[in-house]
Design a protein that fits this description.
Layout (H helix, E strand, L loop, with lengths): L8 E5 L5 E2 L4 H13 L14 E2 H12 L4 E5 L14 H7 L7 H18 L1
Parallel strand pairs: 1-4
Antiparallel strand pairs: 2-3
Helix pairs in contact: 2-4
């Protein structure tokens, strides 16, 4: 959205209602580190258990950027699975880990970093 114009359009593949969970990289790396340092040897989900629709994600980034965008739904494009989420109960139990950085804070950090990179170019 750094490059999106205020009042511009953003293309959404599907209807925007598909859900995902997002985990900030710092949280993810800490989870992987704690898993590697543990004695646990089975598959383990490391992620966020907060479900967010693609529409909600766009709204969050729009708010962070201070830009209003119009969502243009591309219903003929692939949208992937309808929903995907992480169950962190085993993570909490085995390695005492759960994500600490909220989606909003992680996106704000990422947005500001991308904005600085664009300004340098």
């Amino acid at each position: 959205m750094c490059l999106a114009n205020d009042g511009g359009n953003i293309e959404v593949w599907g209807d925007g209602k598909q859900t995902r969970s997002f985990c900030y990289i710092d949280d993810c790396l800490l989870g992987v580190y704690k898993l590697m340092e543990s004695d646990f040897r089975e598959p383990l989900n490391i992620g966020s258990d907060r479900l967010v629709t693609i529409d909600q994600m766009i709204d969050i980034v729009s708010k962070i950027s201070g830009k209003k965008v119009n969502k243009i739904y591309q219903l003929d494009k692939p949208q992937g699975v309808r929903g995907r989420n992480s169950d962190n109960s085993l993570c909490k139990k085995t390695i005492n880990w759960e994500p600490k950085i909220t989606l909003e804070d992680g996106l704000k950090n990422t947005y500001e970093w991308i904005k600085k990179q664009i300004e340098k170019s």
